[in-house]
Write a structure and sequence with these properties.
412 residues, 39% helix, alpha+beta, Nucleotidyltransferase, domain 5
Length: 412
Amino acid sequence: MDVTLTEQIKLTFPSDGQRKAAEQAFSAVTKRYAEACTYVSCYYFEHNCTGSAIDLHKVLYTDVRASYGLKSQMAISVFKTVLARYKTVGELMKQETVAYAVDGRHDTFRKSLDWLQKPVVFRRPQADLVRGRDWGFTAGMEMVSVNTLGKRIKCTYQCRPDSRLFDPAWKHGGAKLVFHDTDRNWYLHISVTKAFPDTGRSRITEIYGHDRGLVNLVTSCGDNGETVFQDGQGVRRIKERYARTRASLQAKGTKGARQVLKRISGRENRMMSDVDHCISKTLVSGCRAGALHVFEDLSGVSFQNLEDRNASGRYELRSWTFYSMEMKTAYKAAMRRGAILKVNPQYTSQKCPGCGAIDKTARDRSQHRYTCKHCGRVYNDDEVAAKNLRQLGIWYVSGVDNPHFSKKVSGY
């Protein structure tokens, strides 16, 4: 498995004059690049989001270079940046499904780019740089060279002493030139890639089942049978506070309120990204090499009966970052020679881990309790799902290609 991560370096300058000249050059190229991306995005949207980078190149390359003054490689990178952004938006939309009923028959379908109401706009000034053409290290990695609309800018930089940039096993890739408002400095976000061996079934050393939720962000069950809960009440309170703040500022509608909204935009997403990183690190760091992490396959999940929830409850479900946590756990596990397995979520919250009976009514959502009517065992409802997911992982390691629960035959 190829794992790609991002390393940040802060660009520094020996004098104030060089810093001012470099900042002007960086501001110009990132602004033009973002404007070019928006221009190409509008064209792509108006043509039904179809076509490849080569198709866009044939039609728009001359206009992009003439109108925005970008050099040849940057003009080509604009098309790839736009298509990559639409691909990301499309993947996120595929995670949502729409439920409908026709003649008494209920069905669902996944969203696609056809649901977009307006083109993607690149508001943040930034530029994607190709290694070797637009950026690169010089002088034995003591300096970095960055291409602009004019001449190249060579500057020193600061980064972590243990940065993967200095590890020859990690291959340098593209970079993104961005300005951080927090400390008013320019940074390069450099992608680094390393290949890790895939972990086959025969190399699995232990199995963990992880159930994701809102009350408990993750509930895990390992080989020792112990259940560990990652409480989500603190995160819930923070998200509710952000929602109230946004609603209050939007209701005011004043210039000052809009400025505050712009300033706090993205804070909640960054907070949740950090939470997902911390939880995924916790899940993986305590495991031996070769651990298998089993998750429910929630792609295309559809939340039913949203009308029974208030606005806060509906937003809580819609903003659930289960996919982000899954992806972060996947690459962290791969770096420790582990793997993740996504399984069919059917009956994972209804099956008793003790006797195997499947009963939908055994789960009391209001009390977060599962009481089996056949054997009398009582569990936390999230604990039930974690134990059942681990059981599916055991079946997978034993040779079952598509482990799942069924009321007729379990596992096949």
